[in-house]
Amino acid sequence: MNTSGVVVGVDGSASALAAVRWAAEEARSTGEPLTLVHAYSPGGQSYAARELRAVQQREQGTAHLREAEVVASLAAPGVRVASRLRAGDVRKVLLAESSGARQAVLGSRGAHSVSRLLLGSAGLALAMKALCPVVVVRDRAPATGPVVVGLNGWPECAPAARFAFLWAAAHGAPVTALRVWRALGTTNSAGVHERARAALAAELAPIAGEFPQVPVEHLVLRGPAGETLLQFGEHARLLVVGARGHTGFARLLLGSTSTHVAGQAASPVAVIRSAEVVRHWREGARLDPAADGAG
């Protein structure tokens, strides 16, 4: 299998270093290498100004990578670590670096562009195009708790569900499947709630049946989808959401709401855009970028 294991974006921020710790532990748990990537894009109106800025950015980038190497070695002694300093647009660099990776990891906040990658108008470049799962990590990454997967909209969220079970099985964690409904003026809320829970259990049954060793809880809550996911997932080991479709959690990483979930979630957030991405994570094999239609 020709992959570069786990790739993590490095920019010197506290959030990025938290992502490095999480990625290092993930790489060690799977026996894969860890690749630290820092991208810089020199600016300036004249050639001399661009060259001077490039030198400064290379020096700063090298320092960020060295710091990240120390953090990785302390978090996961023995993990194989490689560092790459690349010139170019951070989105394009990380997309290229993650093309052969099994997983890409980013920090979710900070002053630099890697931490802001999933936040803002151009923010979904990596999550929507990467051939592997993208995990966004804040400063705190719980080592215990369930894998919480948001499942509003089926079958769009089926790849997210499958990834949640695969990851939970690999890490010895339970799964909580969460569905949120919000119906104004509903008089029979108990009936709506029970029907939604039964539908969720029925949809998830084929996937859950493949992982009898993974405990699963079906949970249906009423309220705003984003806020409910954040609140319930506060103590999750990992939050898993889909990045396709036009309902429920599939919309949480589209447009302005991306800042709400990826920027505020206390737990790491895994973005799963297609079944091919899940297959890539499971098999650890390089995918053809043209094979992008499964979902």
UniProtKB/TrEMBL annotation:
What family is reported?
Belongs to the universal stress protein A family.
Q: What is the lineage of its organism?
A: Bacteria, Bacillati, Actinomycetota, Actinomycetes, Pseudonocardiales
The species this protein belongs to is Amycolatopsis sacchari
Residue limits of the UspA domain? 6-138, 146-273
List the protein's name.
Nucleotide-binding universal stress protein, UspA family
Alphabetical list of PANTHER family matching this protein: STRESS RESPONSE PROTEIN NHAX, UNIVERSAL STRESS PROTEIN UP12
**Record InterPro entries:** Rossmann-like_a/b/a_fold (IPR014729), Universal_stress_UspA (IPR006015), UspA (IPR006016)
